[in-house]
Design goal:
By secondary structure, the chain is an all-alpha fold. It is 61% helix and 2% strand. The strands form 3 sheets. The protein has a two-stranded antiparallel sheet. A two-stranded antiparallel sheet has the order 2-5. Helix 6 runs antiparallel to helix 16.
Amino acid sequence: MGLGVLDVRNEQVPGTSYVLDDDSRPSQEGEFDSKLKYDRSGPVPIILVPQPSDDPNDPLNWSLVKRDTILCILCMISVIASTLSPLLAANTLTLALYFERNFTQMALLTGYHLCGVGVAGVVFVASARIWGKRHLYLLGTILIIVASAWGGASGRNYKSLLWARVVQGVGLAPFEALVNASVGDLYFVHERGKRMALTNMALFGGAFFTPIIVGKVTHTLGWQWSFNFIAIFAGALLPLVFFFIPETAFRRADHLNTDLTGEDDFRRRPQSSSAIPMTEKSSPEHNNDSNASGAGSFDKQHEGTDAEQMRYGAGTSKVSFARGLLPFSGRKTDESFFKLMLRPFPLFLHPAILWGCLIQGTLIGWTVMIGVVLAAIFIGPPLFFDEVRVGYMYTGPFVGAVLGFLLSGLVADWSTKLMIRRNKGIFEPEFRIVLVALQLVIGGAGLYGFGITAANVPKYNWFPPDFFFALVVMGMVIGAVASALYIVDAHRK
């Protein structure tokens, strides 16, 4: 396999696949394999991984504009959803005085909210695997609207606000758990890097932008309006989610998932074996819907028999727009719901999953801890910040999240393409792990720097802790992108 990746002979490794079709490929010069579909928009043909079916309902066959539109809407609602967890970060002291509760009880408003996210996530992931993701995106958006309006109307009833926060967590769960998986549904391997960075930016950037606004909103209009605004914005996005987010999960034939089964299994299928001369680009009449991203298709003379076309989805009619609005579109797997619901627990022992959890979870845990202690550090002496200025302290982390998104988006695709070329056209999911080196340097510097400067605020004032907090968040976003890309590429199912 090369480049330090362990070679397992006589066995297909999930995620390992040919991507570049150049002189290193075992095909005749000037020709490409007629059994594989390509993206020929660039100078070097790129094998599409996974291979799209001929079904017009396959998300990989949708135009790139449509797929990017879906992703943008998901990112917009994810920004709103991600504001829920840090919603009380800037006004913890204000709420403690308002409800006449201690700091621990105020922290529980976030703690139980996160419990709601975790418990619902286990159920929702299993549901998405069986019935798809659309119904969960709709449910999550509706729950966010209802719970946010409930929280804003809870008055001085602490228990009512607590339960509203729990329901908000349940509404957040589909977006926390499934948006990155939708990137795997909608895009080929070579298209995922920047899009995965964008989804993580939406999830983490929104979380760190929230306290900047919430502090000012609480000071000017009252803390209730921080809930009311979320209900309003989520309500405005609900029509977009309903009308323009179709089901992205698709039950594709196993042999088409070449990132899981390998190209050899694909080639053993009964298709025409004629080689097609390689051209700069396919002519429009020889392209199907999947080729909006530059993917080539077969000439009519190479399409095979009608029975073969039906087998690969060529004879399937396109689902109407009205039917696509239904929350369910059939089962996506025959596996048991309860089996899938319990699967995450033994998966924690899987080295790749454990690694991904640690890479993401470690710095996420540190950012949550910093958010909890930030108000306590700066509201008291010697700076005596109010909730507005504490909220402004999240400007640094927000900038860090944006920079992390930009850096990971650029490096993820560039480094992967470089290593694919050095690896003779073979893609390995482990190429995504290179980003972790940046997380180590940037995130580690942020943690050390914040600890040193926040422990001596009279000497360093507010800017150094805020700067190092930004580095922590930047490292967190880079690590989240690296682990999400690796898990999606290596263990997409």
